[in-house]
From TrEMBL:
Family per record: Belongs to the peptidase C1 family.
Biased composition (Polar residues): 214-231
Signal peptide: 1-27
InterPro entries recorded: Papain-like_cys_pep_sf, Pept_asp_AS, Pept_his_AS, Peptidase_C1A, Peptidase_C1A_C
Annotated segments matching region Disordered: 208-231
SMART domains: Pept_C1 (SM00645)
Keyword presence, Glycoprotein: yes
Gene Ontology BP annotations: proteolysis
Gene Ontology CC terms, in alphabetical order: extracellular region
Major localization class: secreted
Taxonomic classification: Eukaryota, Metazoa, Chordata, Craniata, Vertebrata
Molecular function as annotated in GO: cysteine-type peptidase activity
CDD domains in UniProt: Peptidase_C1A_CathepsinB
Protein name in the entry: Tubulointerstitial nephritis antigen like 1
Length: 366
């Protein structure tokens, strides 16, 4: 197959034909077959249409193809049909609006940035565990757990920055535990020599399932190398009300979602996958599996009085993507399968932990 070529000003080199990273790079041939992550047709189509959300051109994603976005920016494998326990649903009044960040100030962590590392499996797991431990310990501990600890050390059947499984990540958090982001900071793969990405934090059992680090934090500061663990995760039913009840009572949950081409340009509003690329060739319409953290919900009234219900969720594409790193997505209709596989978890917190960690304030609060 040959794509139609678009000539940009600058030196011509036939060897650069159809390079996969030519999106917007000037001075190169660009192969029209490669859909870009930031397609102006798509951005303009969304902003001209009445879709309920706005799109933006992100400079940090500029120059990437859609294939690269799906390959490097997501990174969660679809879970197998593991059966986990389900709770009985009780009839209960749920508020129209609920926002974990308001209910538990200082305990809901800011979205991190996975960069071009397909490790949303590690980022979403660490983020949900961080919030849950902070809520459950009533703020005695507010650790921001380290995704890098998972990426580098939870390597059994995991792909690191090439994607991984959340059930494996939860197994690791429960059996081995991880340290904080301050202790084991994130190492973007492009800036990291291969030897630095090997596992630099191990733990050993100190009885009753608890573990202790056997190494110092892999950085020059002297942060605490406390190990944080979780209990086994539990899967919620796909019922909207049950997911809401769980968030309100216990804190943010983890959700798997299918990311489509238009999600990368999301800026604000209530996201729903749009039809702006439906008439385009198939390479413009792609999707991949991602995982995120749902932190709340709400609804917006339409002019006719009907409501548009949404989830509030945190992504892991940094704070300048979306609504300060968060996004809102249609609720109650399994948009992008976000209600299909939702996970909750408890931290492993003892009275001893509560005494060891007097209330203290950390810098990474919202
Ligand atoms: C996005 O921004 C870049 C740099 O500011 C600009 O050159 C490019 O044309 C924009 N692309 C789209 C799709 O709007
Ligand atoms: C949730 O609460 C935080 C803190 O008050 C606020 O900044 C954010 O905008 C709220 N999110 C939504 C979607 O209302």
């Amino acid at each position: 197959m040959h794509g139609r070529l678009i000539l940009y000003s600058g030196p011509m080199s036939l060897s650069l034909l159809c390079l996969s990273s030519t999106c917007g790079t000037t001075g190169r041939w660009e192969c029209e077959q490669d859909a870009c992550l930031m397609e102006s047709d798509m951005i303009n189509g969304i902003n001209r249409g009445n879709y309920g959300w706005r799109a933006s051109n992100y400079s940090q994603l500029y120059g990437m193809t859609l294939d690269e976005g799906i390959k490097y920016r997501l990174g969660t494998q679809r879970p197998s049909k593991t059966i986990m326990n389900m709770n009985e649903m009780q009839n209960e009044q749920l508020p129209q609006y609920f926002n974990s960040t308001e209910k538990w100030p200082g305990k809901i962590h800011e979205p991190l940035d996975q960069g071009n590392c397909a490790a949303s499996w590690a980022f979403s797991t660490a983020a949900v565990a961080s919030d849950r431990i902070s809520i459950q310990s009533m703020g005695h501990m507010t650790p921001q757990l380290s995704p890098q600890n998972l990426i580098s050390c939870d390597t059994r059947n995991q792909g690191g920055c090439a994607g991984g499984r959340i059930d494996g990540a939860w197994w690791y958090l429960r059996r081995r535990g991880v340290v904080t982001e301050d202790c084991y900071p994130y190492l973007p793969p492009q800036q990291t020599p291969a030897e630095a990405s090997r596992c630099m934090m191990q733990s050993r059992s100190i009885g009753r399932g608890k573990r202790q680090a056997t190494q110092r934090c892999p950085n020059s500061h002297n942060y605490h190398n406390d190990i944080y663990q979780s209990t086994p995760p539990y899967r919620l039913s796909t019922n909207e009300k049950e997911i809401m009840k769980e968030i309100k009572e216990n804190g943010p949950v983890q959700a798997i979602m299918e990311v489509h081409e238009d999600f990368f340009v999301y800026k604000s509003g209530i996201y729903k996958h749009t039809d702006v690329s439906f008439t385009k060739p198939p390479q413009y319409r792609k999707h991949g599996t991602h995982s995120v953290r749902i932190t709340g919900w709400g609804e917006e009234k339409n002019y006719d009085g009907t409501a548009r219900k949404y989830w509030i969720a945190a992504n892991s594409w940094g704070k300048n993507w979306g609504e300060n790193g968060f996004f809102r997505i249609a609720r109650g209709e399994n948009e992008c399968e976000i209600e299909a596989f939702v996970i909750g978890v408890w931290g492993r917190i003892t009275m001893e932990d509560m005494h060891k960690h007097p209330h203290h304030h950390r810098r990474r609060h919202i």
